[in-house]
Design a protein that fits this description.
Helix content: 40-55%
Shape: globular
Number of domains: 1
Subcellular location: Cytoplasm
Mean pLDDT: 89
InterPro entries: AceGlu_kinase-like_sf, Asp/Glu/Uridylate_kinase, G5K_ProB, Glu/AcGlu_kinase, Glu_5kinase, Glu_5kinase/COase_Synthase, Glutamate_5-kinase_CS
Strand order of the largest sheet: 3-4-2-1-5-7-8-6
CATH architecture: 3-Layer(aba) Sandwich
GO molecular function, one term: glutamate 5-kinase activity
Order of helices and strands: EHHEHHEHEHEHEHHEHE
Family: Belongs to the glutamate 5-kinase family.
Pfam family, one: AA_kinase
């Protein structure tokens, strides 16, 4: 029996909302459909943002507290809804899913790291897809990941995955010159990080808390663990499948 390729898929809020103010059930269906098609050759672990975006759809919190506490409260409201949407849709495609909430401090303690690894191994071996998010409700300002790109890279490294796919709203990383000329051109393959950093034009996404810079930093963490990173346009349908078939432009960081 051939060993399945283990993939960590990171999905940001902009991808999940398809750059609107609402979580797109259609996008989660697209992800489920692709995982179902690939399940004989690949096993998936998902790091998903979107808890705050879900909550904002139907809640407006009144508070004099700092914005970080309001966001943590929104995450608390939105997270169960986010997981419910995943579970409902994944079930339609014959997929089982589970929730894992992690904090930055979990990656600093050997015991926690061992527990994360062992728990996720049990889930994956029993055909459950772990859906991981930062534990926003308890994370403080100092120890927040700030962006799930870093959470994805740390998790990928800990679990020794074969590939990290970061779904974003561009066709990978564009050259600085092509952005200036307003004719974006994808950098297909990268092996030198210094050259890559010179190409970065940093901009935050609408719903997310990162930009292309945080994706490069995540890829750097993954590279230290000998994990290849793909930065792919998650707004497109069949984005994982098409990347495997080299049918779409995206960036490979080796």
């Amino acid at each position: 029996m051939n060993k399945k390729k283990r993939i960590l898929l990171k999905i940001g809020s902009n991808t999940l909302t398809k750059e609107t103010n609402n979580i797109s059930r259609g996008k989660i269906e697209d992800i489920a459909n692709q995982i179902a098609k690939l399940k004989d050759t690949c096993e998936f672990i998902i790091v998903s943002s979107g808890a705050i975006a879900v909550a904002k759809q139907f809640v407006k919190l009144e508070s004099k507290q700092k914005e970080v506490f309001v966001k943590q409260a929104l995450a608390s409201i939105g997270q169960p809804h986010l997981i419910r949407i995943y579970q409902e849709i994944f079930r339609e495609y014959g997929l089982l899913s589970s929730q894992c909430l992690l904090s930055y401090s979990d990656f600093e303690k050997e015991e926690s790291k061992t527990n994360i690894t062992n728990t996720i191994k049990v889930l994956v071996n029993n055909n459950y897809i772990p859906i991981i998010n930062e534990n926003d409700t308890v994370a403080t300002d100092e120890i927040k990941f700030g962006d799930n790109d870093k959470l994805a890279a740390l998790t990928a490294s800990l679990l020794e995955v074969d590939l990290l796919i970061i779904a974003t709203n561009t066709n990978g990383i564009y050259t600085k010159e092509s952005i200036k000329n307003k004719r974006p051109e994808t950098i297909a393959e990268v092996s030198n990080f210094e050259d890559l950093k010179n190409e970065i034009v940093n901009s935050k996404s609408t719903h997310g808390s990162g930009g292309m810079q945080s994706k490069i930093e995540a890829a750097e963490v993954a590279k230290k663990a000998n994990i290849e990173t793909w930065i792919v346009n998650g707004l497109e349908d069949d984005f994982i499948y098409n990347a495997f078939e080299n049918k779409v432009p995206f960036t490979k960081i080796k």
